[in-house]
Amino acid sequence: LLDQLERYAQHLDHYTELRLHNNHSKTIQMIGGNVVTNGASSRGGVSARTYDDGAFGFASFPSMSDDAIPGALKSAGSNAALLQRRAPMGKGDLPMGTVGKGTFDYRSKHAALTDAEQLDAIRAIDDYLRTTYPDLANIDVNLGFLAMEKGLATSAGALTYSYIPRTIVAVRLSYKADDGAVEVMEAFGGFGDPQDHLTDVASFFPDLDDLYRRLRDKADGVYAKPGEHDVIMDSRLAGILAHEAIGHTCEADIVLGGSIAGDHVGDVVASEKVTLVDYAERGPDGNGGIAIHVDDEGVECRDVTIIEDGVLKTFLHNKETAREFGAEPTGNARAYAFDDEPLVRMRNTAIAPGTDTLDEMIAAVDHGYYLMRPTNGQADSTSEFMFGVGMGYEIEDGKITRAIRDTTISGVAFDMLKTVTHVSDDLTWGKGGMCGKKQMIPVGMGGPAIKCRITIGGRS
Amino acid sequence: MTNVLDATAGVDVADYAVAAARKAGADEAQVFHVYDELFEITYDNKDVSMVRTTVDDQVTITVYVGTAKGQSSLTGRSHDLIDQAVAEAVAAASAGVADPANAVVPGEPTALIELGHREPDADTMIDALVRHQAFMAEHYPLVNIRDSTYQFRNRWRSFANSAGLQHQERRGSYTASTIFSARDGEKGTSFNYTNASSVEPFAEIRDMATLRRLLDDVVASFDPKPVPETFVGDVIFTPDSLGTLLNAVLTSLMGLTLLRGTSPFQESIGQTVADARLTVSNLPCSPQFPLASTFDTNGVPSADLSIIANGVLENHLIDWYTSRKLERPMTAGVFNIRVEPGDQTLDDIIASTERGIVLGRFSGGQPNQQLDFSGVAKNSFYVENGKVQHPINETMIAGNFAQMLQSIRAIGSEAVNFGGDAYPALAATGVTISTK
Q1: Which residues in chain B have Cβ-Cβ distances shorter than 8 Å to A40?
Q2: B364 burial type by CB count under 10 A (0-12 exposed, 13-18 middle, 19+ buried)
Q3: B69 in contact with A, Cβ within 8 Å
Q4: Rounded to an integer, what distance in angstroms lies between the CA atom of residue B41 and that of residue B50?
Q5: Is the distance from CB of A208 to CB of A170 less than 8 angstroms?
Q6: I need a labelling partner for A139 at 20 to 30 A (CA). Which of A63, A236, A259, B49 fits?
Q7: Handedness of CA B141, B142, B143, B145 (dihedral sign)
Q8: How many of the other CB atoms lie within 10 Å of CB of B201?
Q9: Residue B430, exposed/middle/buried by CB under 10 A (0-12, 13-18, 19+)?
Q10: Which helix (H) or strand (E) holds B425?
């Protein structure tokens, strides 16, 4: 495979990326005990992207056969030539960065599970919950497996193969409270193939027991009071904060589009306790949500410290934005599917751990909230962000008290980060994490817990 | 475009896969095939930076062994690949769980339906973008466009099953999508976006859907501030933001939500669930929607449907599987939603508002099963005494979408057609609007 790619890539007139890419997936969806989805998917093909003096031409074809490569190259060249003819830009060459090479195959060393074994694992989780907690109104258990398999060669000399798997078991529980249904969700599994996570689902049961307990707490819970409060954001929320509120704002294509971060390189934008990094490979502890060593432009990936001790340092780049900024590409160009072009994307993004303990942090709050699980998030070029919160508790006099119902938190990141007073001493990565920016793509999000002030939405 | 595959052969591909599935041991089988050609141009204020052409050829095979379901999908159409996918689907079904609700849809073959062009008019598209860049430079010099696209898509959808049902359709459509924000020195605004689809190329990009109003709004959004205090007031959804409300309500009407037993509208058919001014329909057969379809992925022919008529819930949105599971009539598989317009312009609605906000975009958490919601009002404006006072930031809204349906006080007189759905403006009362 790589020999064929390299052979074609060596005989190109313009800078070109040539990618063979196949996304393998498996989905089992159990809703209320019914197997609604039970199947696999393989979506792959070849793509070529050619660059000529500012004009990109991209073409893809739905075949993994090397017969498809010449057609994709020809179409990509024609597309770039069309732009050169109709709307020439004269932007010159792209910076190549450090050319990446290597094979990064993370497929499991254990024997693959059969269809029956995978379905049995999901049914065992459903059966456990149904038997142990008969008062649940509904149980959803979903298996989502995705392995991205890519071979890439560029005319600049990059040559790489990768197989990056992720297996997520998502559990959603509903309970009928006095005033209607409430629900909680949790993800299990993470980086790896199904056989890395599904051979002992009984190990999930203690966490499922805890999830049920929190659901009952939530059923008896209260609405959070709207307004600005002291909060402890657990690692899941700190992770989505790092990704949505800071990471997106510091993607160089967003900066070119008017992000407020463009004005603040070198400025203090956060408490000195905050250092925020977009990590390459699998992160500093080897447990990041994804693995990436060479990006989809053939650039060797490196860590990017976006905020260091509270000071905004730099942005995330692909080759095109690096040319605009006079910077080096950072290995942040990623494409989700064979027919997607690489965009500036995050990888494993996290606030670096501090020195505080979670217990100390909770004890430091007189009145506020402990926010544990996000549901979704969104950010803006102004750094104003929003996260849904699906699980949390009140804190009174340094102690956790009543659970809260679903709420939303918001703030302006470059203001809110200055209110961070504590950062816990651990680093926890979320199991899942998908980012939508024209294309969906798996990302890693994690961090320590942080204490800060934030605005909570809700009903009085 | 690269076009070395026979676009019209989708039904043959589906037929082969159905036969292969039966031969491999499936009791029933259905196959959905999509052949898709995309021509896309990416642009910003200054540059038309990329032309992207893609071809997709996706086969989705569903088999039933007994009544246990298995699925497999692949890109490509060679018999070897299909045979392999069939084997995977049969293996999954053989390991599956029997469910009497699983079955293929009965029916007869239907004739090919075609809509729109087969090929993009590339020169017309590039010319339109160059004119749009010039227009923006002249009229909206402070607005930054980024990651915006103009697409033409020619999509063939084909279906066959072991009961003899066959469908095929082809739709060609143009879609323009744009993301933008404004900058004036160190002042910046939130980003906003919109998109719309049409059978014909857009004569001018600036005239698509609501873009002109959104551009006017973004340059009026410098120096935002929060609402002066927390209060309970009106939210005026624009045609762009009404989907926030509608999507949450429609999800709660879906068959899978009913199957979970958690819909607040579980037993509400025939009941008044909204103000009498609200009428919502699903119109996948309407020619007004280029992104509609004549059949769904189970092969069920599309049908228009009244969902809420003058405030009364007339139908849930129940697909083939959940109709059999719930033993309820099947009502929907393809969704193209239209909210009927009312009798007031957006300006009239604002003028009649004592206190509230015009909600340009909602950035919020996922509503819970009871449709409680909270989130940030983006691209929005504070309204008091019938006048827009100022753009807002750091302002949140919270309430309940089901209750909001009952508290509608006005519906806009123009339903904007985005190509897949058509929404007017809509105002509702009783929403908590909070500041820091």
Answers
A1: 71-73, 88, 92
A2: buried
A3: yes
A4: 6
A5: no
A6: A236
A7: positive
A8: 18
A9: middle
A10: none
State the burial class of residue B326 (Cβ atoms within 10 Å of its Cβ: 0-12, 13-18, 19+): middle
Q: For residue A355, how many other CB atoms are within 10 A of its CB? A: 11
- Residue B82 parent element (H or E): helix B79-94
Low-confidence ranges of chain B (pLDDT < 70): 1-4
Between B1 and A240, residue with greater pLDDT = A240
Q: Which residue has the tokens 């039966």?
A: B22
C-beta neighbour count of B49 within 10 angstroms: 18
- Among B residues 313-372, those touching chain A with beta carbons less than 8 Å apart: 321, 325, 363-366, 368-370, 372
Tell me the Cα Rg of chain B.
Answer: 24
In chain A, the residue whose alpha carbon lies closest to the alpha carbon of B325 is: A34
Contacts of A41 in chain B (CB under 8 A): 72-74
Closest CA to B152 of B131, B130, B124: B124
CA distance A422 to A428: 16
pLDDT tens digits, A367-413: 999 999 999 888 888 898 999 999 999 999 999 999 999 999 999 99
- What would the pLDDT profile of A247-281 be if each residue is shown by its tens digit? 999 999 999 988 999 989 999 999 999 999 999 99
Q: Which of residues 274-313 of A touch B (CB under 8 A)?
A: none
Give the A:B interface size as CB pairs under 8 Å: 272
Contacts of residue A35 in chain B, CB cutoff 8 Å?
68-69, 96-97, 99
Residue A445 has pLDDT above 80, yes or no: yes
Q: Would the CB atoms of B363 and A378 count as touching at under 8 Å?
A: yes
Chain B hits for A80, Cβ within 8 Å: 51
* Residue bearing tokens 């502890």: A285
Which residue in the block uniquely carries the two structure tokens 């005319």?
Answer: A155
Would you place residue A459 in the very low, low, confident or very high pLDDT band (cuts 50, 70, 90)?
Answer: low
Tell me what pLDDT residue B407 has: 98
Residue B246's contacts (CB-CB under 8 Å, 6 or more residues apart) are B280, B337, B339, B421, B423
> Which pTM does this prediction carry?
0.95
Residue A102: pLDDT band by 50, 70, 90 thresholds? very high
Contact A34 B144 (CB under 8 A): no
pLDDT recorded at residue A460: 56
**Nearest CA of chain B to the CA of A286: how many Å?**
31
Q: What are phi and psi of A147, to 5 degrees?
A: -120, 125
Please tell me whether residue A353 adopts helix, strand or coil conformation: coil
Strand partners, B219: none
Mutation for testing the A interface, residue in B373, B376, B379, B397 having most A CBs under 10 Å? B376
Among residues 149-178 of chain B, which lie with CB inside 8 Å of chain A?
Answer: none
Cβ contacts of residue B399 below 8 Å, gap of 6+?
A: A459, B235, B372, B373, B374, B430, B431, B432
Structure tokens at A217: 């707490």
By the CB < 8 Å criterion, does B293 face chain A? no
Token couple for A356:
């505080």
Taking the C-alpha atoms of residue A6 and residue B424, their distance in angstroms, rounded to an integer, is: 54
| Distance (Å) from the alpha carbon of A208 to chain B's nearest alpha carbon | 19
Beta bridge partners of A147: A24, A165
Residue of A394, A398, A451 whose CA lies nearest to A217: A394
Contacts of B178 in chain A (CB under 8 A): none
Helix (H/G/I), strand (E/B), else coil: B205: helix
A chain contacts of residue B123, beta-carbon cutoff 8 Å: 86
Cβ–Cβ below 8 Å for B76 and A37: no
User: Mind listing the pLDDT tens digit for each residue in A330-381?
Assistant: 999 999 999 999 999 999 999 999 999 999 999 999 999 999 999 988 888 8
CB contact under 8 A, B393 and A384: yes
Question: Quick one: average pLDDT of A403-428?
Answer: 95
> Is A183 at the interface with chain B, CB within 8 A?
yes
